[in-house]
Write the structure tokens for this entry.
Amino acid sequence: MLDLKFVRENAELVKKNSANKNKKVDIDAILKLDAARRALIQESETLKAQQNRESEAVAKEKDAAKRQEKIAALKKVKDDFKALELKLAAAEVELNKLLDPVPNIADADTPVGPDESGNIVVRKFLEPTKFDFEPKDHVALGEQLDLIDNELGAAVTGARFTYLKGDLVLLQQAIIQYVFALLTDRAALEQLISQNKLDLPATPFIPVIPPLMIKPEVMQRMARLEPREERYHIPSDDLYLIGSAEHTLGPMHLDETLTEASLPLRYVACTAAFRREAGSYGKDVRGILRVHQFDKIEMESFSLPEKSHAEQDLFVAIQEHLLQAFRIPYQVVRICTGDMGGPDARQIDIECWMPGQQRYRETHTSDLMTDYQSRRLNTRVKRQDGRNEFVHTNDATCVAMGRLIIAIMENFQTADGRIEIPEVLRPYMGGRSEIGGNKC
């Protein structure tokens, strides 16, 4: 949520930013209601002062008849004050309702564009993989090697649920071990920070197993509840299944004031994620690219405001480091205003090359929210000089498991239908070098 004072003082900027983000919000209505609210506050303060004066007058009055008159006058002032407080509370509710969907201000280096056509590729790693045979997509490979079973998933649960089996499960576990070893290693993070010339401490990530369900009011404070039709809801308990670990990592410091010395706080979690993706039927429904349940390793951080850009750069550096270690071709994309999330000030995606589709597909995203999310969550930092301010938050995909597995399967396939295992993952798979064969 934006600071109301900022909206009041920068109304035209907020209007232009909202239009750039394709968000329909009524800034004029916010300003009008804010002016009315402030008038009510002033009137309330006037009545409060009058109430205090009337109370003093009652206390000093010795004449019984005059005292009753003053008590009656005091009662009227109290009633007026209570009525005004109710009007003020209603105005606050309505103002928050209008302010809630106003998007975060896009960062200065965010390209302005109407949709994904305005996104900018900023760098690439490796050329798209070339084969001297006709490459298969992950669906054909998964069926051939009995690693993916969509039909069984559909029969047991429904469309776009699936079973991963055998070596793909071991591959996923190997990826998890490799990633967690990196993110909890201070020396490895120091090296990454140095290589990318970032001014940050090498604070290791704290591994977390968070809840997979969240209260709607908390998810709303995360600015991630809408669109609700994308979420799985459990009416009996009024809980939502998370669409990403960030949904329950972000509120870990709900209504809390952190110390400056404790920041940055970095968390990593590997969880299942659930998305209904209403309205997307017919799109990428084969295989495991777009399913309703998937596994994901997510990074979350709470940082000082002046460090949050570098913190996002670190998250992107981690994403790139992992993909380079796996030797997967990718491109880094700066997301434009019309394609980015409402809470985001700066969004950077990574797209991996998928030979089965002969195109790059989004596999990673990183979101800098500045203080937009922490203002809603009331997560602050107490500075050493005594000042209190809102922290900045970042979240990012470390591994979208299904999509990374697709990239590995398709980029590392062989002519005879096997899949080579990226070298860095082989120690976590018993030294094996491939899936679907007996070579080691």
